């Protein structure tokens, strides 16, 4: 019996196995994460973006207190220039 081959490659390019060009990350020593012992000790900041149903894009700036997992500021607009980010962080 003949073996069944997959569909022919119509692009004209030879394909290589996925592992041929894959690079592995160097091993690292796992360490426990630092947990803040009190509120106000560690803050984090994150920018996010999304699109509304009609195509309008908007961005958010989120500032969190990691000690109590509370959002200190959430700024939403279509544009967040540097001056506005600085004002939120002050």
Describe what this molecule looks like in 3D:
The protein has 90 residues and is mainly β. It has a domain at 43-89. 9% of the residues lie in helices and 29% in strands. The chain contains 1 helix and 3 strands; from the N terminus they run βββα. It has one helix at residues 82-89, and strands spanning 43-51, 57-65, 70-77. The protein has a 3-stranded antiparallel β-sheet, covered by helices on one side. A hairpin with a 4-residue loop joins β2 and β3. The termini are far apart. The model has no long low-confidence stretch (mean pLDDT 83).
Short description:
The chain has about 90 residues and is mainly beta.
Adjacency order of strands in the biggest sheet: 1-2-3
* Major sheet characteristics: 3 strands, antiparallel
Query: Strand-residue fraction?
Result: 25-35%
User: What is the 3D form?
Assistant: flat
Count every helix, treating DSSP H or I runs of 4 or more residues as helices: 1
Q: Helical percent range?
A: under 10%
Averaged pLDDT: 83
Termini Cα gap: 75 Å
Order of helices and strands: EEEH
Structural class: mainly beta
Count of beta strands: 3
Low-confidence stretches: none
Per-chain topology:
Blueprint: E1 43-51, E2 57-65, E3 70-77, H1 82-89
Antiparallel strand pairs: 1-2, 2-3
């Amino acid at each position: 019996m003949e073996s069944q081959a997959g569909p022919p490659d119509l692009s004209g390019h030879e394909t290589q196995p996925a592992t041929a060009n894959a690079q592995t990350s160097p091993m690292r020593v796992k360490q426990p994460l630092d947990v803040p012992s009190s509120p106000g000790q560690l803050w984090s900041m994150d920018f996010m973006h999304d699109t509304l149903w009609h195509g309008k894009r908007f961005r958010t700036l989120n500032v969190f207190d990691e000690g109590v997992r509370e959002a200190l500021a959430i700024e939403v607009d279509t544009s967040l220039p540097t001056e506005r980010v600085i004002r939120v962080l002050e």
